[in-house]
Amino acid sequence: MSFNETDLQSALKKYFGFSQFRGLQESVIKSILDKQNTFVIMPTGGGKSLCYQLPALMCDGTAIVVSPLIALMKNQVDAIRSVSSIEGIAHVLNSSLNKSEIKRVKDDITNGVTKLLYVAPESLTKEEYVDFLKSQKISFLAVDEAHCISEWGHDFRPEYRNLRNIIKRIGEDIPIIGLTATATPKVQEDILKNLGMSNAKTFKASFNRPNLFYEIRPKTKNVDADIIRFVKQNSGKSGIVYCLSRKRVEELAQTLEVNGVRAVPYHAGLDAKTRAKHQDMFLMEDADVVVATIAFGMGIDKPDVRFVIHHDIPKSIESYYQETGRAGRDGGEGHCLAYYAYKDIEKLEKFMSGKPIAEQEIGHALLQEIVAFAETSISRRKFILHYFGEEFDEVNGEGADMDDNVRNPKKKHEAKDEVRLLLEVVNKTGEIYKAKELVNTLTGKSNALIISHKTHEQSFFGSGKENNEKYWMALVRQILVSGLLRKDIETYGIIKLTDEGKSFIKSPKSFMMTEDHVYNETNDDTIVT
Ligand code: ADP
Predict the structure, then answer these.
(1) Which pLDDT value is given to residue 526?
(2) Ligand 1 atom closest to the CA of 49, numbered from 1
(3) Fewer C-beta neighbours within 10 Å, C or N terminus of the chain?
């Protein structure tokens, strides 16, 4: 079957009532209709669902959609059913169905009524389902939230690792569509590899959210008062306040309420009824603020969330981006305010201590990135986008002035000589060290690794002594963002020179360095965790 552009437009109008595709949607849909393996990377709210829903409705056969969350699947199925008069057009296949419901789903698929079948990855492992699906006409298989396949994503789910084998058993030639809102190059690579679709056509939308304002404040013992003040200044607006622990969620929700804010708590420890009630209150604007753990948010489609506050810094930049991304989805104002104290990082590190070593190393590497993000004084937008493998023009780019650092710039100074020194150390030590060892080498501090490579005996050992560790660490981060160095992910952060870095050593150029924020890390009286 072939479709032309008019077919696509009229299908969009007919099924969804929209008159135009957004961003890359049309190209993605064409790729799927061409039966190509397709990989879609779009930020949350970018309109990913439509990318597979529309071709599913247009194609012969049933599209299988793998999704990790049962609640989300239900919402999607209800939405599809509401635009079509045929109930069987979309189904969920999961363990909660009884025998007759399963029979109904199977009959609808066999009779060609069902266009979209949502399944959780664990249901797909059932022999009975695989055997059944093998005998059916399957149009394509969509893997939603495909980052769940990667340990480097923010939501690793081991069941996702089996998907490739199962897909093969259902049908070798079925096109696969992977979709995710996680844009780090490492996660992308993992997805393509694990789904066996290295030949996929890849569509990546920009991750820039120009309407979001990013701000980090030091976390002191007055954090609650500060949050109350902020919320009151924004009274009547919808907002989410994320806390790490359930206890803090309860306490802060109550404190806000006492202060006249219509706030409700939300966390996985509340019973399902209360959770649903609080979520509805937020959606229906009977509550302005939800104080929540990260259990809240996946699949919440409230376009006019005006602020997202992080009482505790999240465990990775992806999590920060996902959670702040719930603000301003309508394109309007969205203030993202996070409180940061290094003590919170230590706390997050402690949480990881019981986990397998590889997982700990990954967790640690991700934490280092969020520390760098919090402490940086360069454009926060540039920092985030660089993390996602995207260049950003900090002068003319969209939303360039939308963060605390850009609005209140710190003094810059010429650091050409220091940059050269640092790059030379990377070069002379043979590109084997992570940031910590490089900084130690510059400041003349040895450790076991440095001694084992005899770096402490080299003439350049201690050659950057006139600056302290913090200075050098800040410089490493800024050079990484500028692209003269890169961090090797496979090795959890070994620093390598880029081609630009190599030519900088030969002919150094001006490099204006901004010093990082210095947050009070050690004074226990002022830090609340
Ligand atoms: P994602 O899965 O990428 O987070 P969704 O698929 O939930 O995003 O889409 C976000 C919102 O955008 C939804 O409310 C959806 O109905 C809407 N949307 C998607 N495509 C279009 C379009 N072409 N025109 C108008 N609205 C759209």
Answers:
(1) 39
(2) 6
(3) N
